[in-house]
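Extended Data, panel c. Modelled sequence:
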Amino acid sequence: MTDRSVPRAVRLSRPMAREVVKEVAKRYGVCIRPVALQRLDTHTGRTEIVDVPCGATLESACPPCAKRNRQLRMAQCREGWHLDHEPAITPNEPDEEQRWLVEFRADVHAQQEAAERAGQDTTDLDALAEGLDEEITEAGMRGHVLGGATGRRVRSTRRRQDAPDLPRRKMTATTLGRTFASPDGRVYRPSLFVTLTLPSYGKVRDGVPLDPDTYDYRRAARDALHFSRLVDRFVQNLRRVAGYDVQYFATVEPQQRLAPHLHMAIRGTLPRAELKQIIAATYHQVWWPPTDTVRFEGEHLPLWQDGTGYLDPDTGEVLPTWDQALDELDDDAQPLHVVNFGEQHNIQSVLAGTRAAGKWLGYLTKYLTKSLADPLDAATGHQARREHAARLVEALRFEPCSPTCANWLRYGIQPKGAKPGMQLGRCRGKAHKPEHLGYAGRRVLVSRKWSNKTLAEHKQDRRTWVLEALGQPDEPIDPHRYVWKPVPAGDANVPPLAVRLLRSVAERQRWRAHMNRLIQNLPATPQAA
């Protein structure tokens, strides 16, 4: 009960008890936004409500989960950076269920082809084949039974005349870089840490344009939209020049000017001159329909007609589809946009086990728990940064972010997979959300043969270490033992959030106390005489 004899100003200065519960939970590494799920144990038939961590990657959502994810990525980066042996990735033999599914799929495919030859309706067979493809994926098989996509549009791969040529070496079947031996017989296996940026769009100071009116926000927006494809091109060029299957761990972070840039750990090394040449020669061309002419805006918008698509409100003509708009691009057409790296970059050689390796490892994962739109310099005026971010978001508002973006209607083109209700400037794509600032790709990019482990296997390593420290057996978990279901909102069996957090904190206290006792009981390390 509140003591009314205490002055109101004093009462308001006291912290809220529920907020203190969250702060304590954060201190003990407890998720503050747990997801309640119903777990059925198929062995015992017992049903219970279990709190599962939210798994957030940003501190603004859940600091404990973000910290765990960052530590997991650091472990992944550390284990794969200076690997000295080839990762052994051998696919498992298919089991009977997988073989049966593929055999069934073969029968359905034969029926589809027979029905097509006879001119019969294949709707039911197509639905059956699609369902089987989903079951094949769920059964633990990778890829698609019919192979890669067919009918993919391919444009000329001839390099632009304004881009320098690149040397190309014969590929060798290895993921390891070169080694160097010193006169005393010691062998060194260096790796690289590379930072790549985008070009300048105008002079900036403390991350804010000196003259916002001349700052090229349109180019900045388009570069951010297609930055992930530029990174893919860089990796392709890097492997062609290096002559081996280069492995990498990269993170995408925001600069102070709010443009994305890349930090990349590369296994192995290349001459700096060649690496600079690769950076200068890397570009990505966006072969999309032109957006020079705005056909619809304001109240003058295309109309939807069921079974037909979007129509011109003045003429009643059906707007060209995405594929039709691409067909109109002739051989003399110019790309909608070309994105390159900027002149500023950083290349560092790194040796395993050195202080520099730890330094760059921390730098790689430093901002993974931050949003791309988070201010990076508290000394800079927040109002100026907000205005700068607002201008960039406004430049992104009507830019098409993908073939399915609703903004294509503004230029008289039906988006791929058009549907009713699409609104200009209100695309729900990730790139158009203010917190992403145009970048819709993944924040962490890891090559397949980096550490020879999946992220789930790295999590299992941490779990095994904790269980061994606590003296508990690390028994394999049957993936089919538990059946998980979401708990409906307002379920009376789910305690209030504060109660769940208190229980989790008490459990962590027991864990820590047990861990401290184990540490105290460790045998003392004998000291050298």
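DSSP finds 13 helices and 16 strands in the chain. This feature is highlighted in the accompanying rendering.
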